[in-house]
Amino acid sequence: MTTAIITLVRGDITRRSADAIVNAANSSLLGGGGVDGAIHRRGGPAILADCRRLRASHYGKGLATGKAVATTAGELDARWVIHTVGPVYSRDEDRSELLTSCYRESLRVADGLGARTVAFPAVSAGIFGWPMDDAARIAVTTVRAAETSVEEVTFVLFDEAAYEAFGRQVR
Ligand code: AR6
């Protein structure tokens, strides 16, 4: 176990090749908008079928915020999708520990699978409303500190503002 190299790219995570692609899911695991919708659209029905099996077995109540679980990657150029549920941003309550947990738990799942390359989106920084600069700080700090067998973590940032926010953290 060591630490992973961090790289940043701008683009669509569903077009990336990696051992594992992380999905910013919701607790239902049954799909949604944003990157979740894109992953299920491009990955095809095998991912949803796996998610339904998880709901029918160990995850009857869904996946808790801050946790992560893997499924097939379907038609994506990856072996696994790791679904993690980010916290909804709140001005009144500090939920950063839950966002930290998403990155830590996703890497723990990746280690269990033997994944060497993992691609992450900016979890919680879209529909869930987390301010991008803070989301980037938590993402980069957590991955930097993680003891993992994953060799390379790529943050795949959808737009220029996200790419720049992550860029400020890795400099
Ligand atoms: N590739 C990379 N990044 C993307 C892509 C893509 N194809 N599409 C969007 N993003 P979001 P959240 C960026 O909303 O905030 C869903 O309904 C996006 O610009 O996907 O964690 C789930 O089911 C933003 O920077 O995830 C949940 O209900 C980042 O990915 C909820 O949204 C995360 O935005 C999760 O919200």
Provide structural commentary.
With 171 residues, this protein is α/β, with parallel strands linked by helices. The protein has a single domain, classed as 3-Layer(aba) Sandwich (Leucine Aminopeptidase, subunit E, domain 1). Helices cover 38% and strands 19% of the residues. The protein has helices at 34-43, 45-56, 96-113, 132-145, 160-170; strands spanning 5-10, 20-25, 68-72, 80-85, 117-120, 152-157. Strands 1-6-5-2-4-3 form a 6-stranded mixed β-sheet, sandwiched between helices. β5 (117-120), α4 (132-145) and β6 (152-157) form a beta-alpha-beta unit. It binds ligand AR6. Ligand AR6 binds at residues 12-14, 24-26, 32-36, 38, 86, 121-128, 156, 158, 162.
Low-confidence stretches: none
Helix-strand string = EEHHEEHEHEH
- What oligomeric state do these chains adopt? single chain
Assigned CATH class: Alpha Beta
Mean pLDDT: 98
- Spatial arrangement of strands, main beta sheet: 1-6-5-2-4-3
DSSP strand content: 15-25%
* Annotation field: number of helices: 5
CATH superfamily: Leucine Aminopeptidase, subunit E, domain 1
